[in-house]
Amino acid sequence: MKTYLITGGAGFIGSNFIIYMMRKHSDIHIINLDKLTYAGNLENLSEIANDPRYEFIHGDITNSETVGMLFTKYPIDVVVHFAAESHVDRSILDPGVFAHTNVIGTLTLLNAALAHWNDHHGGFRPGVKFMHVSTDEVYGSLDDTGYFTETTPINPHSPYSASKAASDLFVLSFFDTYGLPVNITRCSNNYGPYQFPEKLIPLMIHNALNHKSLPVYGKGLNIRDWLFVDDHCKAIDMVIDGGKSGEVYNVGGHNERSNITIVQTIVDYIHKHVDSHVNESLISYVEDRKGHDWRYAIDPGKIWHELGWKPEIPFEEGIQLTIQWYLANNAWLNNIINGEYLKYYELIYRNR
Fold it and tell me: What is the pLDDT of residues 106-134, one digit of tens each?
């Protein structure tokens, strides 16, 4: 039975990945290490919480004693590192938190893996891998044409993306310096169930359902490449199994949409299927984000050709599945909105 240490497994992508892996594989043991900050929610994992193949550990990836204890206690074969501060607006307000969690946390995990996976003969025990989940934002911004490839120079424009870029470089340095088996995935914007409502899609769904303003940065013309979260989970699993050590794999779906198009799509669906009073009059254009990247677009050719991964869920289907999930789980969404996030929402948007 292979043992996975998943960091940040109570967050959006992490919880979806754990559920995906538990459904797909019967012969795995998953250790979920999560600090349970504002974006971590164990309710996301209620369907597998009592599965004997799953364990939750409440802890901080920056704590070397906690991380070292896990490597000593469990025969960890694979680290899948999701845990990160990830919201750009929060990074602008407090970049130090992002540097600490995203850089020091990654380095703490790398040091533990290096120490515990060493076979004491100049190599590492067979089958181990450090899987680092990053973002296309480390590449910076594109103009109206072109795509990010794995050889695109790193050029981050926000404290968040700078912290992720730094953590990426630490991961690659451990491969170059020590030979630690590593991979990095850099994915485009994810969407789907359990996403914390500081992100565009769940925030707009919640606000529209409650007839609240739909705040859109600038003119809403900034473009992102969108990928349904299950397709991302599948890609990570395939890179763990087949990715060449030391390599980076870009993960994207060629589903480019402007922010305003996303908002209009959500409004249109809710207007037609839920509440005819919801319409585009709710959209409000607010002051643009500082250092707002214009366009992200991923060339996923490497993972397509080397590992055979391709996205299975087109955006038109995925966005409907996502809206329907939030409609069916409106209590989950309201509980989060009315808790920790409300103060932040007011700070970022209502005081502009």
Answer: 999 999 999 999 988 778 999 999 999 99
Is residue 321, in this structure, part of any structural domain at all? no
Which of the residues 136, 168, 231, 237 is marked catalytic?
A: 136
Active site residue 160: yes
Provide the domain limits for residue 59: 2-195+226-252+291-314
Other C-beta atoms lying within 10 Å of the C-beta of residue 244: 11
- The answer to whether residue 352 scores a pLDDT higher than 70 is no
Instruction: Please report which confidence band the pLDDT of residue 288 belongs to, taking 50, 70 and 90 as the band edges.
Output: confident
Exactly one of 4, 160, 249, 269 is catalytic; which is it?
160
Q: For the chain, how many structural domains are there in total?
A: 1
Query: How far is it, in rounded angstroms, from Cα 133 to Cα 135?
Result: 7
Residues 6+ apart with CB under 8 A from 259: 200, 216, 217, 220, 221, 222, 223, 224
Confirm whether 317 is a catalytic residue.
Answer: no
Q: What is the DSSP letter of 34?
A: E
Residue 142 belongs to domain with CATH number: 3.40.50.720
Q: Which of 34, 77, 85, 137 is catalytic?
A: 137
DSSP class of 282:
G
247 is catalytic: no
